[in-house]
Amino acid sequence: MAEATPATPAQHGAQAHSDGGWALVPVQTRSERFTSTSVDDFGAVSGLEFEWKFAPVARFSQLLSGTLDGSELSEQITSELADGVTLSWIDRDDAAIGGAGVPEERASANAWSSFSRALHIRVSGSVSGDSVVRVSGLGTEARAAHTVITAEPQSSGIVILEHTGEANLSENVEIVVGDGANLTVVTVQEWDDSAVHLASHFARIGRDARLKHAIVSLGGGVVRVNPSLQLVEQGGSVESLGLYFADGGQYIEQRPYVNHVAADTRSRVTFKGALHGAGAHTVWVGDVLIGPHADGTDSYEQNRNLVLSDGTRADSIPNLEIETGNIQGAGHASSTGRFDDEQLFYLQSRGISEEEARRLVVQGFLAEIVQQLGSEALELRLTAAIEHELAAIRAESATAAESAE
C-alpha cells in the first residue's frame, strides 16, 4: 500500500472565509494565534511573516532553526538579592514552568524546546530594596535560557535583570504575579555591539495584583524583547514601560501585548526611544485586546520616537481590539519626529547653547520612563548611560566638523 501524503497544514490560528469562495485569510484576533512549546510545530521563518517582517532574520537565523545550547547558566549568572527573594534552579517538569504563557513564534519555541533547567526567582513577603540578577559572559555560541519569576500572593518587590557582554541568546521569561501582589520587573540590555538577544516575556497577573514591567535596551546588535501580559483576574493592573536608544546599525524591537481577560482591569503602555546614526532601526508593535468579559477596562498605549539624525528608521504600529462596549476607556497614540524647535528656541533664548539644549531635550524626553522604574540606583545608572550615549554623539559631531574644515 502506498504511503499517504501528509496534508499541508493550514495557517495557524486563522481560516479562509467560505462565503463566496474568497480564499484569503482574514486578520486574526490577537488571542487566537497559534501557540506551542515545541519548535517542530512551527514552520520555517522566511522573513515575510508579520511577526518577522521588520527584523533582520539573517542576523539570527541560528536562533530560529539551529541547535541551541540549553545548559544551565549558573556560571554566567550573579545576583544580589534582597531579604525575602530567593534564587534556585528547577527542572523542566517543575510545576512553576508554563504557568504564565506559551510561545507564539519559532525563536521562543526553540528556546523552550532546548533549555535544560530554569532559573526560578521567588519573591515572598514585602521586600525592600532591589534584587539584581546579572547575566554576562555568554560568548557567541547560540544558547537558550528560561527564567521564572514568581511573586507570592500579597508580596511586593523589585527584580532587575541585567545583561552585558557577548551573546547569541534566545530566552523565555515567565512572570506570575499572585493575588494582591505588587511586583516590578525591569530587564536591562547593555550588551556588546555584536550581541543578539531574542526574548519573549509572559506574565500572568492575579486578582487585584499589580505588575510594572519595563524594558530598557541600550546595547546590542539585535535586541528583540516582546512582553505578553495577561490580566486574567478581576482588578488586576499592569504598567508596561519601554526605553531604548538605537545607534547606527542597531536593531531594537518590542511588541508589547496586553490581554484584558477579566473585568475591572487597567493597563498603561508607554514606550519611548531615541535613534541616531545610519541604519539605526527600531520597531514597536503594540497590541491591546479587550475581551468580551473585560467590562470596566481602562487602557491606553503609546509609543514616542525621537529622531536625532538622518538615516534612521522607526516603525510604530499601535493596535487596539475591543470586544465589549462596557469599558471605562481605551486609546492609543504613536509619534515619530525630530527635535521640537520651540523647545530648542526657548532654551537658547535663556542663554543655553544649541548643543546643551539638544542634550537637555533628549534627557527630558527619556527621563519620563527612567523616573518610573522605582529604583533610585537604577535611575542614576541609566541617566549616566544615556548621557554616555549623548556624549558619543557630540564627539562624533565634533570630529565630523573638524574633518569638514
TrEMBL record:
Pfam families: SUFBD_core. InterPro entries: Fe-S_cluster_assembly_SufBD, SUF_FeS_clus_asmbl_SufBD_core, SUF_FeS_clus_asmbl_SufBD_sf, SUF_FeS_clus_asmbl_SufD. It comes from the Bacteria. Residues 141-365 form the SUF system FeS cluster assembly SufBD core domain. SUPFAM superfamilies: Stabilizer of iron transporter SufD. GO terms for biological process: iron-sulfur cluster assembly. PANTHER family: PROTEIN ABCI7, CHLOROPLASTIC. Belongs to the iron-sulfur cluster assembly SufBD family. This is Fe-S cluster assembly protein SufD. It comes from Cnuibacter physcomitrellae. The lineage of its organism: Bacteria, Bacillati, Actinomycetota, Actinomycetes, Micrococcales.
